[in-house]
Amino acid sequence: MSDIERTEFEVPESPVDPHRHQGDTDLEKSLRPKSLNDFIGQPKVREQLHLVLSGARQRGVTPDHILLSGPPGLGKTTMAMIVAQELGTSLRMTSGPALERAGDLAAMLSNIMEGDVLFIDEIHRIARPAEEMLYMAMEDFRIDVIVGKGPGATSIPLEIPPFTLVGATTRAGMLTGPLRDRFGFTAQMEFYDTEDLTQVVTRAAAILGVDIADDAAVEIASRSRGTPRIANRLLRRVRDYADVHADGHVDLDATRGALEVFDVDDLGLDRLDRAVLDALIRGHGGGPVGVNTLAIAVGEESTTVEEVCEPYLVRAGLMSRTGRGRVATAAAWYHLGLTPPEGTPGAL
């Protein structure tokens, strides 16, 4: 199991799946900005983080612990790396699922140097024994190491140098209250608009040596579901298409041709998204329908439909979640080229 897990369950590697795919790691390393000034988007988070880090540097102290919250693919890992870069310290990386025992965390903390940044991805999935040890480490910069078992077990206090913990979570609601309260600064990462994503695509194209037209960059950005990771992935797929069909030049025609081949439509929906809408509308008259029924209809696990498809369909205004089940909006009917029945909210 890798240090940074992609997700809690396996999902199909769709071009518009925001979770990390097998081939994303090397690309993301080459495209990651190195400073807050180079980071595109998230202006409020950048300003807040600049104040937190600059204030700590001026006082000569270790910055407060930082919690980065938001959907996958928005740059939480990149932001953690930038924190270490801005402070001029080392970055230690792990993930919540990797910390199964208190000893796993103790081994990592025992190697921390003063001022280091410890990054824990998906921190809401950390095991309870390790989490309880983390409380003391965050608050008092010490841990108690248990030596031996049973009645003869001995607790040995171990002082650790002041450090900054950066935690990242896609599910802030799953964090326990005691853990959440120990973070001095919490940043909520937001989805990107098309303008910022166009800058992301243009910057990535320049780094990768891709000859891309301005309108092609906008087209990729508009189909990226507000997520830089998806924008970079689509750029790779469009580059592949352009290398084969357009002598490497990415223009608007090549971009649209590539995204059609890879089943990404003008709203950023992929095959599975459209299958869910089709099952909801053609199969069940627009709902309400339970998620398990939809999952069976499209041949996927219910967790895949609920965690991968639904968030964007709801955010795009194509689906509503009600107490009785999922309901298609008028926009979803129109997107499939159908006329919604009378009484559908938003129907013309």
TrEMBL record:
Matching CDD domains: AAA
Bias-annotated ranges (Basic and acidic residues): 16-30
Main localization, broad class: cytoplasm
Top-rank EC class of the record's enzyme: hydrolase
EC number: 3.6.4.-
InterPro entries in the record: AAA+_ATPase (IPR003593), AAA_lid_4 (IPR041445), DNA_helicase_Holl-junc_RuvB (IPR004605), P-loop_NTPase (IPR027417), RuvB-like_N (IPR008824), RuvB_wg_C (IPR008823), WH-like_DNA-bd_sf (IPR036388), WH_DNA-bd_sf (IPR036390)
Spans annotated as Head domain (RuvB-H): 266-348
Positions of DNA binding: R321, R326
Binding positions for ATP per the UniProt entry: L31, R32, G73, K76, T77, T78, E139, D140, F141, R182, Y192, R229
Homology family: Belongs to the RuvB family.
Function: The RuvA-RuvB-RuvC complex processes Holliday junction (HJ) DNA during genetic recombination and DNA repair, while the RuvA-RuvB complex plays an important role in the rescue of blocked DNA replication forks via replication fork reversal (RFR). RuvA specifically binds to HJ cruciform DNA, conferring on it an open structure. The RuvB hexamer acts as an ATP-dependent pump, pulling dsDNA into and through the RuvAB complex. RuvB forms 2 homohexamers on either side of HJ DNA bound by 1 or 2 RuvA tetramers; 4 subunits per hexamer contact DNA at a time.
Oligomer and partners: Homohexamer. Forms an RuvA(8)-RuvB(12)-Holliday junction (HJ) complex. HJ DNA is sandwiched between 2 RuvA tetramers; dsDNA enters through RuvA and exits via RuvB. An RuvB hexamer assembles on each DNA strand where it exits the tetramer. Each RuvB hexamer is contacted by two RuvA subunits (via domain III) on 2 adjacent RuvB subunits; this complex drives branch migration. In the full resolvosome a probable DNA-RuvA(4)-RuvB(12)-RuvC(2) complex forms which resolves the HJ.
Protein name: Holliday junction branch migration complex subunit RuvB
Gene: ruvB
